[in-house]
Amino acid sequence: MRTLIGLAVLTAVAGCATALHLERAPGYTAPNKLVSCHADLPDDWRHQLSRTRTEVGSHEHVSVVAANGTADTTLVKTTRNRTTELVLRDSRKRQQVMAVQDDAQLFDVEFDGRWVTFATTPGPGSRDTTVYAWDSQKDGAPVRISGSAAPVLHNGRAAWADEAGVHLHDLAKKKDTVVGKGEAPAFFGDLLVWTQDGKFRAVRTDRGEAVLPEPLAKASPGASVASDGRTLVWTQDDRLLGWRADWPQARELAEIKAVPKTEGIVFPRVSGDFVSWRSESSYVTDIRSGATMHTSETEYWLEVRGGALAQRGRHAAAAAPLSAFSSLRAC
């Protein structure tokens, strides 16, 4: 039974990994690992984020965890009064998708404009994960689709990798197919691509055989892969690479200096011309200019979520359409 619930308003906007924001001590300044082109946070970005900023109390947490392509429909995760709710919000309604007792029990939320997928655990200390899908066009209950890895989502199809292999799941037809062995699946054009033994593999999303485009066949991807359907990005050593079908070859989008015993480039997310990623703190890369912005302060922890750029802070949240942000200045 779905219910409509109240929610603190996030004003201007009516998305493979757990939440990226890490709690840091006040005044923490993250190191900048960039070797490639660096740009400062533009003033208009600060303005857009401050205009949509919502302050919450010391015992509350609000974050935009997913958005559709135009960012006028969002999935908002709210924790207050010992309850965490996942709510779909647009200009007409606020609709509860799921409620749990602890913030850590609900994570890996994805949204393709219609379907929502998310993962839950029975308790904050449990590792038993259940993944659900929910159709926002129907007022039904979420449906279990997996008991393990959280999926990526695109145009009504979900994909994930587990011990059985790489799954391609049609949500409307409730049809699940294991299409190969490997990790890190991503939807790219009419392909589902994934990694196996340091190389890309692929099938067509209609489950037919596929021939990898030459730039992908030559690539040596690392552990992290992401796509918005048009742009495929992946890590390779300490570099972030990307490719589009109209590019003659893959491009280096960003590079960091190797720092022993710290994380490299992880959790990339791409939408349009922006890629957000993490390496101890958050970074946003502009594909057009080749510049990357590093957020050194926890209050400006930024990540791409569908068609929105979302800010996640200790006691504040904000999100605005990616179309509202200027290009980062090239070096």
UniProtKB/TrEMBL annotation:
Keywords linked to the UniProt accession: Signal
Leader sequence segment: 1-19
SUPFAM superfamilies hit by this protein: Tricorn protease N-terminal domain
Keyword Signal included in the entry's annotation: yes
Protein name from the UniProt record: Lipoprotein LpqB beta-propeller domain-containing protein
Lineage: Bacteria, Bacillati, Actinomycetota, Actinomycetes, Pseudonocardiales
